[in-house]
Automatic annotation (TrEMBL):
InterPro entries: 5_nucleotidase/apyrase (IPR006179), Calcineurin-like_PHP (IPR004843), Metallo-depent_PP-like (IPR029052). This is Metallophosphoesterase. Keywords: Hydrolase, Nucleotide-binding. SUPFAM superfamilies: Metallo-dependent phosphatases (SSF56300). Gene3D superfamilies: 3.60.21.10. The keyword Repeat does not apply. Belongs to the 5'-nucleotidase family.
Amino acid sequence: MSMNSPYAFADLRILATSDVHMHITGWDALRDRNVAGRGMDVLAHTIETARNTANGACLLFDNGDFLQGTPVGAICAAYASDVRHPWPDIVNALSYDAIGLGNHDFDFGVPFLERTVAHMDAPTVCASLASGSVAGVVPTLLIQRKVTCSDGQVRPLVIGVTSVLPPQTAIWNHRYLTGLIELEGGVSAARRAVTALQAQGADIIVMLCHSGAGASGTKDDENFGAEIAAKVEGIDAIILGHTHERLPKTAGPKDLNGVPAVMPGYAAEVLGQIDLRLGWTDVGWHVAGHDATLRLPGAEDQPVPAITALAAPALAKTQETLDQTLAQTTSGFHTYFGMLMSGPSDALIARAMINVIAEQVAGSDLADLPLIASVAPMTMGGAQGRATLSMCLRDRFKCAIWRCWHLIPTPFGRRC
């Protein structure tokens, strides 16, 4: 360190959501009830508080899997031409700085994803594409900030951002991606992107890793967060996702192989926060200290009306669709032993799935093939008596219809 370049400090706060899965409010569409502490309209208040209490610069990222996961997401995809998608509006209202992609964001096809990306002010980033492209998605991103240092000087800071996801996405969404997009392994994609960001002049690098932590030293092509942290040099903070866990745990480490790390759960229930203490010398910036934590909405965190209003049209369309009568039966059904053995509710759901598929493939080269429906139990018994059991059956029947939805063609390709 030269005498002309005194040592100084600055603070950078990184906020992150992940695996929101279209929980834009706390409304559980299938059960028609609100879940406390869930939804982007509630988390918006938490985000505002975290920003307002930051000591220095603050960035907000999303780590993917935002388009799919609730009937609201399916409705937005099914009626894309006449229902404005709320997610881009929410991203814009909350001033996200960058968005990473998750595997489920391809569930409605590339054209639908491209239209959603086009409506977001925040750049969308994904470095996992080995070939092919998604319009509007870039592999790396540089964010310019000016930060006030402990010596009173204001200095420029360049934050590099990239994103990776499981390569199995190409298999899980093969009907959309085969012949169009090939995906690279997580570690190799991360290494390539970090090298590029370093060459582009990034002072600090944030990795949006839509993958679980896994374990360093073990080969896990789907959950490679720990492996990236151990093998890819130059990453200063890592946001994890995909497995819906919460990290750090209460008594757990706040880093992953030395890299500050958070995984902000699922369904907009938690906000991830990494605070970096940055040191500056005449040779540039480095991380001098860090803290990682999860912020859960408290009693004071009420839904932000402006965000709830953005979600209202899509929620109304979803309610209208789910209120339609699908079928009637005079027979009694229950799910008392649903997790132990198949029963009449499973048979009903399987028959509904087969009927929907048979109607859609009629007259095609698939029409003569045998149809087999696989039904997984989702509930057993009922904590609130028979009314709950009846509701559970209704929910499962509707879920079965949504699972068949992807076979129905639309002007935008096939549904999820």
